[in-house]
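[step 3/7] fold_predict: job queued, chain A
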Amino acid sequence: MDKTIASCKKEFLINGLGNLDSLIVAFSGGVDSAFLLSAAREALGEKVSAATAVSPIHPRREQDEAVRFARDRGIDHILFKTDEMEIPEFIANGSDRCYYCKKALCGKLLRMAGERGIAHVAHGANLDDLDDYRPGLRAAQETGIIAPLMDARLTKEEIRFLAKEMGLSEWNKPARACLASRFPYGCLITEKGLEMVESAEELLLDQGVASVRVRHHGTVARIEVDPSEIDRVVKQGTRKTIVERLRRIGFAHVALDLEGYVSGKLNREIGKSEN
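[step 4/7] structure written:
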């Protein structure tokens, strides 16, 4: 990565954001949206707001971190409820699940912006997302949500570098897709299943694992962690705790994926990549 080029891209981003009248940033609390929100704050001052969706598909830990981030910087922050579990195509969990979810989310964001007299809504998609299978991008484009990081041609690596330069602790935060991504395509998404996944991942995070996915295969929990953290999980005391607690959560069987966490693993069946 060329640091000079990354810095030039950031300048392009700031200049572009500065030309907007006002902006809402869809803020998940991840590195991409945190960097975008910080850049927008620098460019627009109090004319930028953050908006974070609250629903069973979003871990409470992520919501709490987003709240702290905005509060510490004095940024106007909107928490709003979304209703993914009322969307039949979302519950059915086909390969286009994200399209229907994002379409509904974008609609709410745009209505919110209109009610507040805010001219634009942005999300934190970056250039690397174009290489992934992300049907949600199509929904955002169709509804007119802008993607300033993508327009600035910023990659994930560059965003992490620039976020670190800005002093954002989120610069090395692991990617955390929504909890619905833990269900194989075709398996119905239920609120109970989402609760089980969130509780299981919270347990692993509390055990010191930095990045984790607990895939929901009915009665089986399939744990994915970074290969460097597999030894931590299989240590006798830790392994026993994880198995006992996940069984209490409701999983009859607990498995560890020896390949480790790989972004897009559940999309292999459709031959493409997604979180």
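[step 5/7] annotate
The chain has two domains: 3-172, 179-270.
The beta strands are 23-26, 48-54, 76-81, 120-122, 212-217, 220-225, 253-256.
exit 0
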